[in-house]
Specification:
The protein is an alpha+beta fold and 208 residues long. It has five helices and twelve strands. An eight-stranded mixed β-sheet has the order 1-10-9-4-5-6-2-3, sandwiched between helices. Strands 7-8 form a two-stranded antiparallel sheet. Strands 11-12 form a two-stranded antiparallel sheet. α2 packs across α5. The longest helix has 25 residues.
Length: 208
C-alpha cells in the first residue's frame, strides 16, 4: 500500500512539472524590444563560410544562443550602428548565457571573408561574420524572418535590409525577434538596456 502511494506521489510530482513547463510555454514572456514566437521555429539547412574561411552551418548553432542580423559592409548607417550597439551590449549579454553574435552579409559579391574579417574585427573580434552564395543566403534570411533587396545597378549599389535581430536557441531554432522602436526625437532603435533585460527573461523561461 505504501509503495502504491509513493508511486502515485512521484507521478503527481512529474505531472506537476510537466504542467508547469507547458504553462510557461503557453504564456510567452512579454518583451520590451520584440516578441517571442508561440513555438520554436526550425531553420532551413544552410552552408556558409565565416570571416576565417571556416564552414558555418546549422551545427554551429548548437549549444549556445545566437543573435543574427543581416547587412553588408558597404552599409552607410544601419550596420555600423548596429555593430557598435551590439559590441557595447555583448559583455552583459554573454554574462547571462553563452551567446554568439552573427552578422550575415547578404552582399557576397563584395563581402569576401577577408573583407568581413577586417570589418567585424573593428567592432568585436568575437563576433561571427558569415556569407555564402545567394542560393544559401536567401532561404536562410527568409527562414529567420529577415528581408533584403538590391537597389540600383553598378558597383555602387545599395542593399535595403531588415534592421531587426533574431534570437536562435541552443537547439538551433528561431525563438524571438527584437525590433527597433521609435522614441521621442530619436530614430527608431533597439535599446541595449531593453535587449539585455529581454534576453535574460528569455533564457530564464526557456524550456525544451
Amino acid at each position: 500500500m505504501k509503495k502504491r502511494i509513493l508511486v502515485i506521489v512521484i507521478l503527481l510530482i512529474g505531472l506537476g512539472g510537466l504542467i508547469s513547463a507547458l504553462y510557461e510555454r503557453s504564456h510567452p514572456v512579454e518583451l520590451q524590444s520584440g516578441f517571442i514566437f508561440p513555438e520554436d521555429l526550425d531553420i532551413v539547412p544552410f552552408e556558409l563560410v565565416d570571416q576565417h574561411q571556416q564552414p558555418f552551418t546549422n551545427a554551429n548553432l548548437q549549444g549556445k544562443w545566437s543573435l543574427f542580423f543581416i547587412g553588408y559592409t558597404f552599409c552607410p548607417d544601419v550596420c555600423p550602428t548596429t555593430l557598435n550597439r551590439l559590441a557595447a551590449a555583448y559583455p552583459e549579454l554573454s554574462k547571462i548565457a553563452p551567446l554568439q553574435v552573427v552578422f550575415l552579409s547578404v552582399d557576397p559579391k563584395r563581402d569576401t571573408p577577408d573583407k568581413l574579417l577586417t570589418y567585424v574585427n573593428y567592432f568585436n573580434a568575437d563576433f561571427k561574420a558569415v556569407t555564402g552564395e545567394q542560393a544559401q543566403i536567401f532561404p536562410l534570411s527568409r527562414s529567420l524572418g529577415l528581408t533584403y533587396a538590391m537597389v540600383d545597378d553598378g558597383d555602387s549599389y545599395q542593399v535595403d535590409h531588415s534592421a531587426s535581430y533574431v534570437l536562435v536557441s541552443p537547439l538551433g531554432t528561431r525563438v524571438a525577434v527584437f525590433k527597433s522602436t521609435p522614441s521621442l526625437g530619436k530614430p527608431a532603435q533597439i535599446l541595449n538596456e531593453n535587449l539585455i533585460n529581454d534576453f535574460a527573461k528569455i533564457v530564464k523561461s526557456y524550456h525544451r
